[in-house]
Amino acid sequence: MRIFETFQLQSYLDTLVSYGAALVLGAIIGAERQYRQRNAGLRTNALVALGAAAFVDLAQRLSGSAEATRVIAYVVSGVGFLGAGVIMKEGMNVRGLNTAATLWCSAAVGACAGTDMLAESLTLTVFVVAGNTLLRFAVDAINRLPFAGHGIEATYVVTLTTDSLNAARLRELLVDHLELMRYPVADTDLVERADDRVDIEATLVSTSVVDADLDRVVAYLGERHAVSHARWEVQTQE
């Protein structure tokens, strides 16, 4: 059988290490996405990294580094189509861009692992996780800065993540608390997520909001058992 002719223990062990590294590092990146209840979570990022590693490793074993470079180019474009599937446009808002970019980075981690660049794949994983976690604080800080100029409009959105069974009740509770703080709600929307999760989004009428008021509302509602995540953000439009 040809399998006994092509099998080489050293090459097989090399491939095994590449696959294992890609799967673990992709899972690390996906764990952060899973925690934040994004559409592409732990399994998706892990499989993207593993698939990229498998294609690159196969090309390298069959035809060397030159063919591996060509396959990497195809992986980049292929994952681009995959990432487009998690981007959704809802009115004036576009969702999923960060998740799509994370999938792209997971493919890069897998490609590094597939070419036996384990140190580089580990380093890239650290940077991707840092970008999705540490930079979040910088984004929040920038969004809460006072706006300069008259051509900028700010819209405040308070979001609760819960299960579908409690969505209606928490929607009313969120509106009641915001109006109690004298922040009338212009609109509320329910956005379905993975694992039977729902985002309740309340858009405020007021363009002048005290941060501490929203912090108190989010902190109180976030302590309720049916709420897995509670947050608020500022959306701007030129």
TrEMBL record:
<keyword id="KW-1133">Transmembrane helix</keyword>
<comment type="function">
    <text>Virulence factor required for growth in low Mg(2+) medium and for intramacrophage survival. May be involved in regulating membrane potential by activating Na(+)/K(+)-ATPase.</text>
</comment>
<feature type="domain" description="MgtC/SapB/SrpB/YhiD N-terminal">
    <location>
        <begin position="21"/>
        <end position="137"/>
    </location>
</feature>
<feature type="transmembrane region" description="Helical">
    <location>
        <begin position="71"/>
        <end position="88"/>
    </location>
</feature>
<comment type="similarity">
    <text>Belongs to the MgtC/SapB family.</text>
</comment>
<protein>
    <recommendedName>
        <fullName>Protein MgtC</fullName>
    </recommendedName>
</protein>
<keyword id="KW-0997">Cell inner membrane</keyword>
<feature type="transmembrane region" description="Helical">
    <location>
        <begin position="12"/>
        <end position="30"/>
    </location>
</feature>
<dbReference type="Pfam" id="PF02308">
    <property type="entry name" value="MgtC"/>
</dbReference>
<feature type="domain" description="MgtC-like C-terminal">
    <location>
        <begin position="156"/>
        <end position="232"/>
    </location>
</feature>
<dbReference type="InterPro" id="IPR048640">
    <property type="entry name" value="MgtC-like_C"/>
</dbReference>
<dbReference type="Pfam" id="PF21770">
    <property type="entry name" value="MgtC_SapB_C"/>
</dbReference>
<keyword id="KW-1003">Cell membrane</keyword>
<keyword id="KW-0472">Membrane</keyword>
<dbReference type="InterPro" id="IPR049177">
    <property type="entry name" value="MgtC_SapB_SrpB_YhiD_N"/>
</dbReference>
<dbReference type="InterPro" id="IPR003416">
    <property type="entry name" value="MgtC/SapB/SrpB/YhiD_fam"/>
</dbReference>
<dbReference type="GO" id="GO:0005886">
    <property type="term" value="C:plasma membrane"/>
</dbReference>
<keyword id="KW-0812">Transmembrane</keyword>
<feature type="transmembrane region" description="Helical">
    <location>
        <begin position="42"/>
        <end position="59"/>
    </location>
</feature>
